[in-house]
Q: What sequence folds into this?
């Protein structure tokens, strides 16, 4: 049924029979639909302003900022692309995000392979230590870490940022993977070990392939965080020529603050890549949360 | 602890006795380097007068004494707490209502789920710039323009420029961005509620409100725990939105602990004092999370 609709953050597990029984009768459903759509329209007003202004020339904006663009122009996008040096920022963001995600998947899944079997003792203490990292504000270690990265000569480099994101997101990633592995039946890995596999083989051949759904969740949630992060790249990459998209947009907006058409075109271009990734992977979002709630 | 570099090659076919704890070494090394070591060092710096360059000496509790007499820091503590409470209440209340709405059998539910969640995947800095326009004091554009157009011109405000409004305007912007995030977590919880329970309650004569209160709500406890924890921690650490939208102003009206510690370190070069402010923030986060976790977990078990 609803799987045919374009996208949808749906859990996938549709139950046609019960769903039909659950459907309220009478007008209640239409009233609810109307209320929700009205809420969505109000909710979307900032997005409307964003797109409408990006499509207007400066004189049209000055004349009637809120009216729909009557003669839409793409000129703002071209100007924004070059003034914000979005091309190189996109490359920088892509390299840093992709490398960090790859490392996070490796250290998170292998770490969880061990931690998931620890329900007491040293291993469990270690697991709690990892969880501590989820609540610990990164600001506490911000200055010593800045000093460390500086001493390594890694300010303004890709590897500084990749190390940072891998470390800072490891607790959350370990948490997601551990919860998922605990909910898996243990028999597969056990059987492989009995059949003479060592742990490395049991992990790469049996366990890791079973982790596909949670790997999807790990990738989308970490990608959103890393791609959008602003504070640390501002600190570590400012003025280096390796600025990520949010940092490039930040300085671009500061420079052209009154030229709303071009600024908003820049925002649209900068937000598009992560929105596209989200739309492609969105079914993992709710599944991941559902798994996390159980774990 | 073994060096991580040996972990890869050593886990080979010819070494069948690889202990499983070796698997946690890479995660532990990177976590220790980026989070544990710097955080411990941060606690140490909080008791020094370090300026970022050269040597420093230990000054005992002097930084915390300064903090107690620093109007900007004190204002930031109040602001951070107010902002957190406002965001937690509004974001989760709205998130729950949206989740109930898009969990119902309405035609547009799949589209609405994407629409409400989408702002949560966009950079907070960009959302802040967008909302700076929405809050534009100019009467013809943004929110004021809409209020004028629908005949509510009397409600027009200088949303970010009026010191008594700034904090709430920032809160509204954060709620707009993350209400969909709370919605998705609640939705995951709602989909774990077995339909049979609702069916049974309906047969027993329970109305909509009673089914929500006695069937759905208790089963949403784990989702509520996750949501409250995430939004509280997020609220206490809030930086990007404030930095980009108001930079803490006007005056100190929207200064948060995060913006103050950033300025103290990277504008005024007071690294020691800045880490003291960061330590206060960390203690707030730890205290609030532990209290919440204890209370909410107890509630989950009871439910």
A:
């Amino acid at each position: 049924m609803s799987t045919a609709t374009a996208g949808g953050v749906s859990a996938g597990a549709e139950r046609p029979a019960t769903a039909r029984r659950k459907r309220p009768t009478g007008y209640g459903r239409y009233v609810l639909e109307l209320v929700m759509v009205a809420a969505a329209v109000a909710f979307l007003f900032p997005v409307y302003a964003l797109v409408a202004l990006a499509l207007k020339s400066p004189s049209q904006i000055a004349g009637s900022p809120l009216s729909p663009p009557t003669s839409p122009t793409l000129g703002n996008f071209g100007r924004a692309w070059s003034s914000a040096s979005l091309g190189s920022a996109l490359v920088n963001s892509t390299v840093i995000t992709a490398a960090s995600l790859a490392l996070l998947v490796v250290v998170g899944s292998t770490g969880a392979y061990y931690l998931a079997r620890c329900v007491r003792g040293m291993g469990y203490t270690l697991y709690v230590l990892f969880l501590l990292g989820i609540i610990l504000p990164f600001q506490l270690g911000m200055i010593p870490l800045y000093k460390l990265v500086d001493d390594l000569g890694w300010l303004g480099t890709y590897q500084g940022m990749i190390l940072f994101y891998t470390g800072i997101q490891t607790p959350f990633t370990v948490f997601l993977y551990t919860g998922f592995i605990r909910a898996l039946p243990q028999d597969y890995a056990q059987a492989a070990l009995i059949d003479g596999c060592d742990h490395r083989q049991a992990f790469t051949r049996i366990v890791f392939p079973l982790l596909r759904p949670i790997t999807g969740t790990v990738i989308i949630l970490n990608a959103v965080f890393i791609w959008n992060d602003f504070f640390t790249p501002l600190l570590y990459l400012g003025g280096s020529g390796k600025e990520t998209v949010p940092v490039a947009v930040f300085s671009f907006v500061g420079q052209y603050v009154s030229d709303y058409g071009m600024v908003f075109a820049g925002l649209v271009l900068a937000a598009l890549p992560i929105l596209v990734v989200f739309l492609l992977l969105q079914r993992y979002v709710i599944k991941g949360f559902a798994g996390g709630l159980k774990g | 602890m073994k060096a991580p570099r040996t972990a890869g090659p050593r886990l080979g076919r010819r070494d069948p006795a690889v202990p499983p704890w070796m698997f946690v070494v890479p995660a532990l090394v990177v976590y220790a380097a980026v989070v544990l070591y710097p955080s411990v060092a941060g606690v140490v710096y909080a008791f020094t007068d370090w300026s970022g360059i050269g040597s420093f000496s230990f000054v005992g509790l002097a930084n915390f004494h300064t903090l107690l007499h620093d109007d900007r820091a004190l204002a930031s503590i109040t602001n951070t707490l107010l902002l957190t409470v406002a965001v937690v209440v509004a974001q989760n209340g709205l998130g729950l209502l949206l989740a109930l709405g898009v969990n119902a059998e309405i035609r547009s539910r799949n589209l609405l789920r994407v629409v409400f969640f989408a702002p949560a995947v966009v950079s907070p800095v960009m959302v802040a710039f967008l909302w700076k326009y929405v809050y534009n004091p100019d009467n013809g554009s943004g929110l004021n323009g809409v209020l004028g157009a629908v005949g509510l011109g009397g409600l027009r405000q200088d949303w970010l420029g009026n010191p008594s409004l700034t904090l709430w305007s920032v809160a509204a912007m954060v709620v707009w961005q993350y209400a969909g995030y709370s919605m998705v977590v609640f939705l995951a919880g709602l989909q774990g509620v077995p339909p049979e329970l609702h069916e049974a309650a309906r047969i027993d004569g329970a109305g909509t409100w009673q089914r929500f209160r006695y069937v759905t709500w208790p089963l949403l406890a784990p989702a509520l725990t996750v949501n409250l924890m995430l939004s509280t921690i997020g609220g206490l650490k809030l930086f990007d939105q404030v930095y980009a939208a108001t930079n803490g102003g006007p005056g100190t009206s929207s200064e948060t602990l995060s913006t103050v510690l950033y300025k103290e370190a990277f504008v005024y070069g007071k690294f020691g004092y800045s880490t003291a402010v960061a330590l206060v923030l960390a203690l707030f986060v730890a205290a609030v999370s532990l209290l919440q976790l204890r209370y909410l977990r107890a509630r989950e078990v009871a439910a």
Q: What stands out?
A: Chain A has a mean pLDDT of 85. Chain A touches chain B through 107 residues (CB under 8 Å). The radius of gyration of chain A is 24 Å.
